[in-house]
Amino acid sequence: MNRIAVYPGMFDPVTFGHLDIIRRGAALVDRLIVAVAVNIEKKSLFTSEERIRFLEEAVNGIPGVEVCRMDGLLVDFLRAQNAGVVLRGLRTVSDFEYEFQMAGMNRILHPGLETVFLVAGEAFQFLSSRLVKEIAGMGGDVSRFTPPAVLPELRRRMMARLERGPG
Ligand code: ADP
C-alpha cells in the first residue's frame, strides 16, 4: 500500500520542532508532503517562496519527503495528491483545542480522512515560529531553534525593522 501523508502549516519559519515531526512522520509513511499554506487571512513574515526554500534546504536528504505550496483548502489538496492522512504536531493543551476542531471539521469535509498527531519531542515542546521571530526581533540568538538557511534572512528582516524604528 502506498501511504501518502500531508503535513500542513505556515512554517513561518520552519523550526527544529517542525523538522522533528517531519523526520518521525516520514518514518511512518511512504511519502510525506510538507504543504506550505499560502493563507491570505494569516500574515506571514516570510513569503511563501522563502518558507518553501527554507524547508527544501532543511529536508534535503530525508527520504520520502517533499515540499509543496498549498493555495486552497487542505481537503482539496489532499484529494489532488491522493493522500488520506494529515500529520500534525501537538505541544500543549492550547494546541489541542484548535487541532481537535480542525481534525473534526476536515473529516466532515473529507470523510475517511485521518489526522495523525505526533507529540512534540521533549526538546521542542516550548518552541514555536512565533517565539523564534520574537526572540530574533529583540536581538536574541535563534540558531538553536531554526535551521541555518533561515538565519541570514531573519537577521536581514530584523535589521530592516530596527532601521525603520519603533512602531
Ligand atoms: P499552523 O499555522 O498551521 O499552526 P505551524 O507552521 O505553526 O502552522 O505548525 C504546523 C504544525 O506543526 C502544527 O501541527 C503545529 O502544532 C506543529 N508544530 C509547530 N511547532 C512545533 C514544535 N515545536 N514541535 C512539534 N510540533 C510543532
Concise synopsis of the structure shown:
The chain has 167 residues and is of the alpha/beta class.
Question: What is this structure's SSE topology?
Answer:
Layout: E1 4-9, H1 16-26, E2 31-37, H2 48-59, E3 65-70, H3 74-81, E4 85-90, H4 93-109, E5 114-119, H5 129-137, H6 151-164
Parallel strand pairs: 1-2, 1-4, 2-3, 4-5
The chain binds adenosine-5'-diphosphate (ADP).
Question: Would you give an account of this structure?
Answer:
- The chain is an alpha/beta fold.
- The protein has a single domain (4-122), classed as Rossmann fold, CATH 3.40.50.
- It has six helices and five strands, in the order E-H-E-H-E-H-E-H-E-H-H.
- It has helices at residues 16-26, 48-59, 74-81, 93-109, 129-137, 151-164, and strands at 4-9, 31-37, 65-70, 85-90, 114-119.
- It has a five-stranded parallel beta sheet, sandwiched between helices.
- The longest helix is centred in the middle third of the chain and has 17 residues, at 93-109.
- The mean pLDDT is 94.
- The protein binds adenosine-5'-diphosphate.
- The site of adenosine-5'-diphosphate has 16 residues, from helix 1 and strand 4.
